[in-house]
Design brief:
alpha/beta; two-stranded antiparallel sheet; 228 residues; 6 strands; globular; 4-stranded mixed sheet
Length: 228
């Protein structure tokens, strides 16, 4: 089975072929959804999106993600309210019977699935589905998890590794599908963004440099070095 038959990638807006530009759109969405201060309820923040952004940045810098379509995102206000786009139009999706689908957070290289979690709650059913899909496609499966400051490994890593082994065995017993990879754990540093926001230390997430901006900086540095 080819990846194109199992995973639908979005057609990204012009410019978002650069995953850094797409991440900046996600940062814009996150910042627009921030509650007005003072608001004592950190739960009103979309920390799921926060960690999706942080995980995507890490994978772009590691040169795993190379195209914006590999990152699932929601819509901007302009896309939903002015353009009237379908809410799922910028998602990475797995088609399901009955014109349904399920979303994947990140899929790089066509078959390497990354799910991002902002809480310790483990979805065993989702794990089983992802193991089956990644194994069928000959890819891999990773979970990006919040990691406390000063630690190299998330506190919940062991629970996810145990759930993966159980899902791998169940997929083999029920479907005869071999899983020839280990679960990847991506450590996403936990940041006390909510507290810093409430305290007025930060006003939102900062945009990252796009590839065009990075290339321009390299060209300028090379030009300046040739002058001497």
């Amino acid at each position: 089975m080819q990846a194109a038959l199992a995973i639908n990638f979005p057609v990204v807006p012009p410019g978002e072929e650069d995953p850094r530009v797409r991440i900046n759109t996600m940062i814009k969405i996150f910042n627009q959804k921030l509650p007005q201060r003072p608001n004592p309820n950190p739960a009103s923040m979309d920390m799921g999106l926060f960690y999706e952004i942080k995980a995507a940045i890490k994978l772009v810098r590691a040169r795993k993600i190379t195209h914006g379509k590999e990152i699932s995102r929601g819509l901007t206000k302009h896309e939903s309210e002015v353009l009237g786009l379908n809410g799922a139009s910028q998602m990475v999706k797995v088609p399901l019977p009955g014109n349904r689908f399920r979303e994947l957070d990140i899929v790089y290289g066509g078959n390497n699935i990354v799910e991002v979690k902002d809480k310790r709650v483990l979805d065993a059913t989702q794990m089983e589905k992802n193991v089956k899909l990644a194994s069928t496609l000959g890819g891999s499966l990773s979970y990006a998890l919040p990691t406390p400051e000063g630690k190299d490994k998330p506190n919940s890593a062991s629970a996810y590794e145990t759930a993966f082994k159980e899902a791998r065995e169940k997929v083999y017993q029920e479907d005869g599908i071999q899983t020839n990879y280990s679960l990847g754990i991506i450590a996403v540093p936990s940041e006390d963004f909510a507290k810093n926001y409430w305290d007025g230390i930060v006003s939102g997430l900062a945009q990252i440099a796009t590839q065009a901006e990075l290339d321009k900086e390299i060209d300028e540095n090379e030009d300046s070095s040739t002058m001497w």
